[in-house]
């Protein structure tokens, strides 16, 4: 694990550093297009983000105390690993008491996975952790970086007017004027600014002239001490079904050495072939202790095991229905729950449970 004592760089803003009433926010820069520039062969690569304030002059107008911590080696988010998630979670835990909110600058490609992972790992989160990034690098004309970051910071600082309680104590994704619960986010666009969609759940806020929060959709939990988990099980896989999938493909995936869990991407409301070879493959995997989580390939709707004959075998086989979870949230949920090292009954219970608002039971 890299050193948690990374230096914090204060950014000049309208707030006086000594004004303890001004919200204190921490930006964690991990990489992504937001901070990229072209290398000698023309490809976009992440750069250090030292002079963030010079590239985003609007930050200086914000009435917040803002500090920046940049990871020593920023990455394109295609290179993100579970070890990164655990490190960022530790970093947030380390500074949790000192800051009112956190903004994670991250590449868009795997942002939905990272936000979902952190939603599980940061248990009893009581402060905002807002992921954002950009489709166009900060230095380039028409970049969406400043706009996304400024509003993400405003969300991280948001409080209810009278009670001053935190408005969004969740891991979320803010992008192109929409705030989405982190474990409901999906990247749906690689060319447009509207890169993310909230699956099966309303957006938590929209940014127009004003920031309009949908308070009834935001999770407010009883106050509890934050718990930063430190284990994720990496022995997971995704098996996406398609007509014509062969026994060799299914068997090869389900018999990977060290496999502990697999997301089964099924059809419609959780349906799959009923061919004996297919059901046998699943039964054998279950006998070897591999957990199977049933997630629909459909973007909307939910898994209802038993609705059709083609999903009626799953309950007997011990396949867990994923309800309306996204693949991103399912992969990271398997990593998290299996990383807890619980017994069979409790593992099954947690996989089916709504842990962080990732499913609508
Ligand atoms: N490849 C980039 C990344 O995910 C894409 C982006 O940030 N827009 O890091």
UniProtKB/TrEMBL annotation:
GO terms for molecular function: asparaginase activity. Its EC number is 3.5.1.1. It comes from the Bacteria. Residues 24-217 form the L-asparaginase N-terminal domain. Gene3D superfamilies: 3.40.50.40, L-asparaginase, N-terminal domain. Coiled coil: none annotated. Keywords: Hydrolase. PANTHER family: 60 KDA LYSOPHOSPHOLIPASE (PTHR11707:SF28), L-ASPARAGINASE (PTHR11707). Belongs to the asparaginase 1 family. This is asparaginase.
